[in-house]
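FAQ
Q: What does a multi-component entry look like?
A: The components come first, one per line:
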Amino acid sequence: MDYNKLRNLIFEKKNFLCVGLDPDFQKIPEHLKMLPFAQFEFCKKIIDSVAPFCVAFKTNTAFFEEQGSNGWISLEKTIKYLNENYPSHFTIADAKRGDIGNTAEAYAKTFLQNMNFDSVTVAPYMGSDSILPFLKYNNKWAIVLALTSNKSADDFETKQLVNNATNFEEVINFTTKLGTNKNLMFVVGATRADDLKKIRSIIPNHFLLVPGVGAQGGSLADVVKEAWNKDCGLLVNSSRSIIFASNSIHFNKVAAVEASKLAMEMSNFF
Amino acid sequence: MDYNKLRNLIFEKKNFLCVGLDPDFQKIPEHLKMLPFAQFEFCKKIIDSVAPFCVAFKTNTAFFEEQGSNGWISLEKTIKYLNENYPSHFTIADAKRGDIGNTAEAYAKTFLQNMNFDSVTVAPYMGSDSILPFLKYNNKWAIVLALTSNKSADDFETKQLVNNATNFEEVINFTTKLGTNKNLMFVVGATRADDLKKIRSIIPNHFLLVPGVGAQGGSLADVVKEAWNKDCGLLVNSSRSIIFASNSIHFNKVAAVEASKLAMEMSNFF
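Then the predicted structure of the entire assembly, as tokens:
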């Protein structure tokens, strides 16, 4: 999906919600667990229910991998289902891959070509070699970790370099030179409003993928206040508070209610 | 595998070679490509041929993932084959996973419990939250990226912080507080002999996983000179120069010859 299509989708729908598909097997409703591809069945029902209330879906590869090859098949079925039935939704493989050379090429091919996700989350530690292979695909995106919402982000990401930049600013500085705001986004946690403001001043035109609203304590209003740009420039992710809002047989309807609440709140910002 | 067992294995065998299983589908011999699990068949033949000449095997998840769920099954078959037939070899899932909270827990469970690898490579960018979940398993290891062998390591890893440490030193500093030399190793590229020496002075007692010897230009003698410790403390990896030394029907025999050359060179250091 290209930049304009994403931007227009957001403005037509007055919505910038990304629903995170984290199908932790322990937490999916009991009545689905006996099905051959339980994680896919769970994701499918969530997708069908919440699609009207979001513009993007993010699949977390860890929970699929935890179920072995069966989980990997569920991941393949989930992205295929999304591409066939919801081509207007933006898709993210939240894989946080980070390697170099032909290994990085293989990861990029896996997610962007073979599975046809719109984007992959990428770890920047090893430098540009880790990021460039993901920028070779037309209308695809690398979403690079900058400042995350977890407490131990302070172990490393916020450390200050002798050039006065923090590590997360340095990541943004060298990464933005590799691509454009048409193929690069950054992960910035919602729990750090001051830093969101600072990051927006460095990259006024890039989309930010923002986790940490809701369960992790970030405020949607603060995120919008500090990081909204003329094209919205935000994809705000919510996972557990939507998909695991209930584990009853009506879990998907409860998920839709939770997503619709966020959608309603978001529509007020347009 | 615990520290003493690994140490004894190395000294009994007079060998610290890790063979990297990177089954790039394009590069595996034609006569194997038609088999249902071609990557597993390739790895199996390589393993059987080179096992006498190494102490460890490292599977690169990227190349399995590139073949979709079929590749993931090959990965599962490969580690099962290793655990059943070569329990005395140390195993590494070279996955470079890096995430937080229950996502990191899921990755750790996938590789260390479900697949029963001895170790996983881990990216440190998000701080201790990314590493701690991998340290909860008895006799298992997290192998944390410190200084890698690629050129763009200078984009980020070697940048200097205001506390005078470089980023890779900072990673070592905060990571060593989370575990011990019995459950933590670090990735340090062979192409930077000066830095190897510096790292060895910071962590005299930790094992280092060293890629970059051979194809990438690092010298085995330099690595040994700068980073050998009383327990050897080294696992030197070689992948392509062994496993793709030939793509003929005798590829596995040629691989064994290449591994045996390195093994011979290594034995001289004991």
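Q: Is there any commentary attached?
A: Sometimes. For this entry: The radius of gyration of chain A is 18 Å.
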